Give the backbone structure.
Amino acid sequence: MNGWSNLPVAPVVLLLGALGCGAGEAPEPEAPPVPAAELVPVDPATVGVIRGVVNLTGTPPEPREIPLGSNPACSSGHDGPVFFDSVIVQEGKLKNAFVWVKKGLERTAFEIATNEVEIDQRGCIYQPRVIGVQVGQPVVFINSDNTTHNVHTVPVKGSGENFCMAIQGMRSPRTFKREEVMLKTKCDIHPWMGAYIGVVRHPVFAVSAADGAFELTGVPPGDYVVEAWHEKFGTLTQAVTLAASGEATTSFTFAVP
C-alpha cells in the first residue's frame, strides 16, 4: 500500500493540490526573435562538427541512496538500492554535462526539430536526467509507474508548468517557447525526483556520455563560444573556431570544490 489508500477522496484531492498538481500559470512570453530578414540559412555543404570531452578532477562526492520508501511503485522497479545520479563520473570523465553553442548562432536560421524527446518517470526516477531540445520542439513526459507523479518545471522567469500524471502509461506532450539553460524539472510528490532540460533556439547541443564525450554536429563555419553546464559544478566556456566543412576539438575540465 502507498499510505494514501485509507484517506477519504476529498483529502486526497486537497493533498495533491497542495503538492503542486495544479494547472500552473502560463510562462512569460518569449523575447522577440531576430527578424527573419536578418537570419542567414545554413549551407549544408559547409557545416562541420565540434567534438570534445568533459572531465572532472578531484574526488567526487560519495553517492547518496535515494529514500524510495515503502511505495511498491517506486521500489519494485529496482533490483537494489538506488543512488542519486547528479554526479556520474568514470575514470575522470563526467556524464550528463549539457554542451551547447552559447554565442555565434544568433543570426543563423535553423528549422525546428519535430521529433519528440521523451522523459520517462520510471521507478520514481526521471530517465534520462538531462536532455536538450529546441524551442518549440515537443517534449513528451511519460509515467511508467503505477502511482501519481506531478511534473513541475521551474524556470528562472515565470511559474512554468505544473501538472499531474496519475495514470500508468500516460503521455503528456509539452513545448517550451523560451530559451533556457537549464530548465529544472521536479516532482513535488517524490521530492528526490529531478531532471534538467536545456531549451535552445538552435539544434547545436549535446549531453556528455558516460565516457564524457560529446559531439556538436551541423555547425556552420564561424567563431563560437561553447558552454558546458553541470548541475553540481556550474558552467565553463571555451572559444572555438570552425572552418568550413571542418572539425574542431575542445574539452572542459570541472573541478570538485
